[in-house]
Description:
Blueprint: E1 6-11, E2 14-19, H1 30-44, E3 51-56, H2 68-75, H3 80-97, E4 103-107, E5 110-112, H4 114-119, E6 124-127, E7 132-134, H5 148-151, H6 159-166, H7 172-178, E8 183-184, H8 190-199, H9 204-211, H10 224-230, H11 236-246, H12 249-258, H13 263-276, H14 282-296, H15 300-311, H16 329-336
Parallel strand pairs: 2-3, 3-4, 4-6, 5-7, 6-8
Antiparallel strand pairs: 1-2
Amino acid sequence: MVESEVLTRVESGVGHITLNRPKALHALNRAMCEAMTDALAAWRGDDGVQSILIDHAGERGFCAGGDIRMIAESGAGDASEAKAFFKVEYRLNHLLFEYPKPVTAIVDGIVMGGGVGISEPADVRIATERTTYAMPETGIGLFPDVGGGWFLPRLPGQTGVWLALTGTRLKAADTVALGIHSHFVPAERVEALKAALTAHPDNPQAVAASFAADPGPAPSGPHREAIDRLFAFDTVEAIFAALEADGSDWALAQLATLKTKSPQSLKVTLRQLRLGATLPSFAANMAMEYRLGGRVVRTHDFQEGVRAVVVDKDNAPRWSPAELSGIADEDLDALFAPLPPGEEWTSIA
């Protein structure tokens, strides 16, 4: 018997969702998103469920993202399967964001891309010393979707722009300091925390607070002033120029990292975040990201990024255009344009 890739059950008033695809680092596919959506929809009106807990099986990490290989294969054709996945995944993200009962996500290990999308909307977001957070999409020709356009520009100062463009990996001291995760709990105490949640399903905030510890000083702290100053511009070219002009070792290291990323992705991502900061609702942001997603997966840079990082693993993508100057505003306008009537993303009623 093949075990389900998502385990759902109710325990002492807690609706418990466990990601169960450890060999793939719990990377999300459409069936997993549908299973989570079905459970959450069933529990929404169930008085026997007072709060939700999302965690993962095994030791290897919470969720490394989405099924990127499938998305690329679909994008090489008409992208219909990729768009079907995005529609379901983004509806799950939105359902979690609007959920009427408190949600706790225990992000013990790697959390990237799609894993951020199902944990960031939670009310209680617990990191451990094993947590590694990143939105690395610009390195594969994509953009930080699953709500990145909403969450990242709402982090302190310009830290969200810095994270989105560079794909920088953070540990718990930084994620808690920036508010990406709400609490730090040592991994050895996670099982006791879960037991306490089932004993007090009505108040996960209080439970998390009682287990929370100090993750230590945030390594990004000394660079916050530079981040806010150097990543405050509305064009990627201006950010590049500011980093170069600053000339510090840290600024030049950020610039070197940015120069390895897809120029198209950098421009798409900066516009996505600046637009996302102005949108009236999370649903409006997901509609924007759905328009982008179905188009970007068909571009050369996404296909090439997946080839270089996921398929051939040579980590030597050949971006086209290779320079920022090769991407015109009209190219971006086309990627962000509204979809034809009847094709736009909509949330679950």
